[in-house]
Amino acid sequence: MYLMNMPNLREAYVDVVSSDILQYDGFDDGYVFNQLKHLNLCVCKEESSNLLGQILKDSPNLRILDISVVKDHGTDERNGMVSWNQPNFVPECLLSSLQTLLWSRYFGRQQDRDIAVYILKNACHLKTATILADTDEHDVPNLQMIKELALSLRTSVICQLVFVEYLN
């Protein structure tokens, strides 16, 4: 795997293809993406939740976070992230810069809820959180998804939580 220092990176689409990225010594704590403003992360693979935590930690100026599941990524689509190990401390971007969360194909599984609730609870300047709920994939009722997130604590008093049903 090849990963290079990109201090001027402003926008990135990240798709985890292999678990090797989490074992790559150069990415553990040495990379800081100071200029990254927009991250689109595909969470189809097991390792993607850990990568999300690492990138949040290393992107202090992140303003837009798109979390997505690409439908044609094959069998891992049903499995996706296995668990969310929340960071030991709240990443700087959640405290100071994140304004927009867009989650495409939100399934409402425990690991999805854990991440969404963590972001809502800690993103101090979040203006909009848009959740495109996919109730067909994992049989989680849409109303249940809405209630769980709507009732969760939000640090940002101006945050608008928007739910849209994902249509296949």
Write down how many β-strands occur, each being a DSSP E stretch of 2 or more residues: 6
Main pleated sheet: 6 strands, parallel
String of helices and strands: EEHEHHEHEHHE
Poorly predicted ranges? 21-26, 74-78
Instruction: For the largest sheet, list the strands in their spatial order.
Output: 1-2-3-4-5-6
Classification by helices and strands = alpha/beta
Helix content: 25-40%
Distance between the termini: 33 Å
Instruction: Quote the beta fraction.
Output: 15-25%
Oligomer: single chain
Determine the mean pLDDT.
79
Principal-axes shape call = globular
For the CA atoms, what is the radius of gyration? 15 Å
Tally of helical segments: 6
Could you characterize what this model shows?
The structure is a single chain. It contains 6 helices and 6 strands; from the N terminus they run ββαβααβαβααβ. The protein has a 6-stranded parallel sheet with strand order 1-2-3-4-5-6, with helices on one face. By secondary structure, the protein is an alpha/beta fold. Pfam families: FBD. This is FBD domain. Residues 92-164 form the FBD domain.
